[in-house]
Automatic annotation (TrEMBL):
Gene3D superfamilies, sorted: 3.40.50.2300
Boundaries of every Response regulatory domain copy: 25-138
Keywords: Phosphoprotein
Organism (species): Tropicibacter oceani
Full protein name: Response regulator
Chain positions found as 4-aspartylphosphate: D74
SMART domains linked: REC (SM00448)
Domain of life per record: Bacteria
Amino acid sequence: MDDYRDDLEVQHRRPTATRPLLGLTVLVVEDSRFACDAMRLLCLRSGARIRRADCIKSARRHLQVYRPSVAIIDLGLPDGSGAELIAELAHTSPRIDVLLGTSGDSFSEDVAMAAGADGFLAKPIESVLVFQSKILSALPPERQPNGPRLVSDDPVRPDPMAYRDDMAHAADVLDERGDGRMLDYLAQFLRGVAHSAGDGSLQKAAEDLAEARAKGRPLQAVIARVAALIQDRLSDRVAI
């Protein structure tokens, strides 16, 4: 009887034309709730299960317990570079089938690939077709589904409340900033989240903060502008 149930479960989890990632588990290492909600929707449409870690330390705890089929790792994380985790996993045996880097920064693809990634997803990640193709093309041939795929490529629309969660996280980081490294992280985080959400004014303010940090300029005015923009979004005075 148990063998019969196992056979039914295997058949149920076989990839289909509309859900080609059935049977795969995707670990998303991502500090943005907004970006992670986009990943959740992409996995849902594709048939994959998703697990999330918001930093390198959390990802390592997950990986001590289970081995995902796919790991999608953001390059900018609060406790280090995602490239470090990609390099670590690329040399772990048995290796995770698919390692993908992700970022909104154009230079990050080269960093991810040099670390050992199998591919790269540029943010914002909205296309189901691109998402599935990046994963399927990196799978071993025996794990790839046969036949054509039937894909509805309507872009995914993450929950705006997830963006508000990201603003709350940014506000906490700003309140607790203790050194330049956290300001650098905040600028990178806000730049990526705002880019994914199409929030041009916040993205520009984050870029100005990063530039001021890099060039040693006074920070008080630009930090005040960033803080005001964050509070506007937390108060629902700005819609995305």
